[in-house]
Design a protein that fits this description.
The chain is an alpha+beta fold and 141 residues long. 27% of the residues lie in helices and 39% in strands. It has helices at residues 36-51, 119-140, and strands at 6-12, 59-70, 79-90, 93-102, 105-118.
Length: 141
């Protein structure tokens, strides 16, 4: 496998991408800067794009692990891009170095791991969990 493949994903930060936007209750207080969760999502998208050539018919890639640090605050209106670069494969897991940048430089970096899965199998497994969850709810009432 080519051990130098990579891909990117980028956005312009809006209020929807900020930490303040992830608040669940009025008592949650987060700043209006690019959120860590959105940065991780951008890193995942970049890694998924890098894996596209490896996917067969009916397959997709899913994230299974993330270990990153978010090192700088990015204001609304800034451009942000994430780059995912293939590092290695262990068993069925592909590991990527991921890094995000805004207009002033690096804002975060780490490692992201993805796996190739059969789309139908993934969706049927998720549906089984929904059925199991409703069974547990019914039993506890």
């Amino acid at each position: 496998m080519n051990n130098h493949f990579s891909a990117e994903a980028g956005i312009v930060v809006t209020t929807q991408d900020t930490a303040r936007n992830i608040s669940l209750a009025p008592t949650d207080s987060f700043p209006e800067v690019f959120s860590t969760s959105r940065m991780i999502a951008l890193m995942e998208i970049a890694a998924a794009r890098a894996m596209r050539p490896l996917l067969g018919e009916g397959q997709l890639s899913v994230g299974v692990a993330v270990n990153v640090r978010h090192s700088a605050a990015t204001p609304v209106g800034s451009s942000v891009r994430a780059v995912a670069t293939y590092l290695r494969t262990e068993a069925k897991l592909l590991h990527f170095h991921v890094e995000a940048f805004d207009d002033a430089g690096s804002i975060g970096a780490g490692e992201h791991t993805r796996a190739i899965v059969d789309t139908d199998r993934l969706l049927s497994g998720a549906a089984r969990r929904r059925k199991r969850d409703s069974t547990l709810t019914t039993q506890s009432n």
